[in-house]
Design goal:
The protein has 89 residues and is mainly α. It has six helices and no strands. Helix 1 packs antiparallel against helix 6 and helix 2 packs across helix 3.
Length: 89
């Protein structure tokens, strides 16, 4: 698996959870102590967060790593459809 394979999933999943929480990228950036440009680069797919930042984002979005990226095998879940769309070649 390459970075190109999982970058869309991370971007879409963060965006999805942020939208559900109803917070802007800028608001989240300020709370996490990051710049707006850093958060925009993640949400646009230009960059991936560091592992440390990803865990901080997951905690801020009030989820867990397991819920952030559940197994994609169960095609009935929304996350599985997101996985399928992200990893389509």
């Amino acid at each position: 698996m390459t970075t190109a394979d999982y970058k869309p999933f991370v971007r879409m999943r963060i965006t999805e959870l942020r939208s559900a929480k109803k917070v802007s990228g800028i608001e989240r950036a300020l709370i996490l102590g990051k710049s707006g440009a850093y958060i925009r680069s993640i949400c646009s797919g230009a960059a991936l967060p560091s592992l440390h930042s990803l865990f901080n984002i997951i905690r801020y979005l009030e989820t867990t790593p397991a819920l952030f990226s559940p197994p994609c095998e169960d095609q009935t879940t929304h996350c599985a459809r997101l996985c399928a769309a992200s990893f389509r070649r």
